[in-house]
């Protein structure tokens, strides 16, 4: 029987991947999407172990990293989206030891929704529930055809699930609400695509709420009331509905109140769940791990003496860099110089910076210390949490000289 | 050499929405510093009416700037059926992120998917390379 591996290309963590290896490299990847294949085959720019841009041995680099964190008054530890849960837990321990700001990519991404789910403010389900039961699926500000290429084929639209034996042709209705006609919107079809203006999400939600309450839906942008009423009828008849929430929706809302209102109403008239469309493979894991440890999902600063955590926007990676309140940084499993506004991330190049990653990236090119780690799910095992909160075991496929991310963090912590 | 080069290129104000693209994301997995990543990232998709206003051709380079940054990227005609004049699309990348303002209203979340830029023909200027962005 074939051995199946887990793809760490995104937070779907597809666990049906087969690989063929040759000369200690992955030659062929079966079943993964193109992004997943590229992730599992590894990058063409592996990170080297360096201190001050000179090649260094791992022990020296670890000693330097420890020195930077020890000497800093307000260090920042950031990243974690592409780190194993084991590494994330060690990161939390390290942050406590040195009194660091600790944050992850959810801070400017799916954070508010994950927090609401963990606090039982939003009803949710698993991807397997969607596969087997979902008949009405709304992609709101989400384009999984690009961000999570196997979402529709493995879970949300095309498969013949246990209670959806006639698949997408008869058993499922996919709906897209977005500011542009994405590839996912094309799959949903013109009748099921609701194009709204930029920033119009909250108003469209309230209009839909009116329609669900049998009132005339009104929007300031004059959206056809008949179409909103039709949509409300489809949602009312759903046996198992799901809203897949993407960044387009999250960035458009000032707070989650309109989403809470809509979900409450949908669960009065029908049965609806929410799925956060998490990007990086273990972002949700970080949120779970920190929540368990400190009661917050992100944006904390630990007191090194009491190990108490302060929490709030001021401790977010964006505000910490914008206000220059941190004086050194350790970045693990992330590339903030690519993913944050340059106006914010530029400050990272002015402070002692350490990066831990399998590959070279913009952040590593500005780092004082770079430490290559094993590629999670390929060169090292561990655990990770899928976008729906299900824990998944990662298996090692290949040997590497690089240490796993958790091992590097353990050594840095010991050296402080 | 034509007379046109002595005239200032028209400049227009646009709103930018960023999005994800699986081909660009795949190129990113292989190499942040590769040609394919630049080719699939350093692009702005424009409505045909805005392309006409800029007096450029599909595929010409344009200067995209605001108070946060300035990049030269390739302008491409978007293939949406509905007009979206005044709104441009950029794939999420270091090129788009160099234009995202740092204002957050103290929330810790920048406006990644809604910011203003001015666009102007670059008269054959080269696309900004990834190492030049910083």
Task: Spell out the key features of this protein.
heterodimer, A: 416 residues, alpha/beta, Rossmann fold, Dimethylsulfoxide Reductase, domain 2, 2 domains, 9-stranded mixed beta sheet, 5-stranded parallel beta sheet, 18 helices, B: 134 residues, Barwin-like endoglucanases, 6-stranded mixed beta sheet
Which helices and strands occur, and which strands form pairs?
The complex is a heterodimer of chains A (416) and B (134).
Chain A: E1 18-22, E2 25-30, H1 34-41, E3 50-51, E4 54-55, H2 58-71, E5 75-79, H3 85-98, E6 101-104, H4 111-118, H5 127-133, E7 136-140, H6 144-147, H7 151-156, H8 167-170, E8 173-178, H9 183-188, E9 193-195, H10 201-212, H11 225-236, E10 241-245, H12 247-252, H13 257-269, E11 272-276, H14 283-294, E12 300-302, E13 309-311, H15 317-322, E14 328-332, H16 336-339, H17 342-345, E15 353-357, E16 369-372, E17 382-385, E18 391-394, H18 405-415
Parallel strand pairs in A: 5-6, 5-14, 7-8, 7-10, 8-9, 10-11, 14-15, 15-16
Antiparallel strand pairs in A: 1-2, 3-4, 3-16, 6-12, 12-13, 17-18
Chain B: E1 11-19, H1 22-30, H2 35-41, E2 43-46, H3 48-53, E3 61-66, E4 69-77, E5 87-91, H4 94-97, E6 115-121, H5 130-133
Helix pairs in contact in B: 1-2
Protein name (chain A): Formylmethanofuran dehydrogenase, subunit B
Keywords (chain A): Oxidoreductase
Organism (chain A): Methanolobus vulcani
